[in-house]
TrEMBL record:
Keywords: Signal. Residues 1-26 form the signal peptide. Residues 36-260 form the SGNH hydrolase-type esterase domain. It comes from the Bacteria. CDD domains: SEST_like. It holds the Pfam family Lipase_GDSL_2. Gene3D superfamilies: SGNH hydrolase (3.40.50.1110). This is GDSL-like lipase/acylhydrolase family protein.
Length: 278
């Protein structure tokens, strides 16, 4: 069966490709003070605010959390976040036109934000391929896949510190998607599976938070602050589009409000820890 999320991504890419100016795919290193690394959770707001100057398959937004953080802190930004990125794409090309995200790092980098790991844990595959069709897989199967990202995540943090020795590294986790029940916007998702999905994201947070702290990064917990803004919340305040996506056309991906909420939490954590004054 065709993955619904991949089908939506493909449609967005095809529809926008004709608008992309020639030469817009090149991403030379900017030597920016702030480098943003990560996957679609940091990169995109789907069909909303699409950045046509970025590699199109990244679906990078002009209003994503990194851009909002940069504006709040007054930092120049090299945003390398890209939809579908895995941890390996931090150090390897994701595609011929998408350089390794680490290429942007250097001694001039003062701040690095990192949000990645969901694709390595196959969160989309388990959620759309199982939970919404036949029911979520067993906790042991899914949990083992999530836990398995720890070594590569730890190595990535060490590599960031080596490449950007003067930078503060900030890792943000995954906010609240669901609580203990479904809703009409989730198209019949069983309550037990809604709880299972959220539990999986919180397990992913546990893995990432543990590695972040162990490797000297600042971890930003986004679960509690977003508990009232999940996919079953009122559409005007949702941080994520539900399976019947009506804001971004990308289920389980951040809305503009979600990116703003995460950005505010990141900025607050940096300022409260006086992180950039080091």
């Amino acid at each position: 069966m065709t993955n619904p999320l991949r089908a939506v991504l493909a449609a967005l890419i095809v529809s926008a490709s004709a608008l992309l100016p020639a030469g817009a795919l090149a991403e030379p290193a900017s030597g920016a003070a702030y480098v943003a690394l990560g996957d679609s959770g940091a990169a995109t707001t789907g069909a909303a605010d699409l950045d046509l100057a970025a590699p199109l398959r990244c679906l990078r937004s002009t209003a994503n959390a990194p851009k909002l953080v940069a504006r709040s802190l007054g930092l120049t930004l090299d945003d390398r976040t890209c939809s579908a990125a895995e941890i390996a794409h931090l150090s390897q090309r994701q595609a011929p036109d998408i350089a390794p995200q680490f290429d942007a790092l250097g001694p001039a980098t003062r701040l690095v934000t990192l949000h990645i790991g969901a694709n390595d844990a196959d969160m989309t595959g388990y959620i759309l391929g199982h939970c919404h069709l036949t029911g979520c897989p067993s906790e042991s199967e899914w949990g083992a896949r999530i836990d398995a990202i720890a070594p590569s995540y730890a190595a990535a943090l060490d590599d960031i510190a080596r490449r950007a020795p003067n930078a503060v590294i900030v890792v943000d986790g995954w906010p609240t998607y669901l609580t203990d029940r479904g809703c009409p916007a989730m198209a019949g998702l069983r309550d037990a599976d809604a709880a299972h999905i959220q539990s999986a994201f919180e397990r992913l947070n546990t893995v990432v938070a543990r590695e972040a702290v162990a490797h000297g990064a600042l971890y930003v917990d986004t679960v509690a602050a977003s508990r009232a803004f999940g996919m079953c919340a009122d559409p005007s305040v949702r941080w994520f589009d539900p399976i019947l996506a009506d804001r971004t056309l990308l289920p389980y991906h951040p809305t503009p409000a979600g990116q703003r909420g995460v950005a505010d939490l990141i900025v607050a954590a940096i300022e409260s820890n006086n992180a950039l004054a080091r």
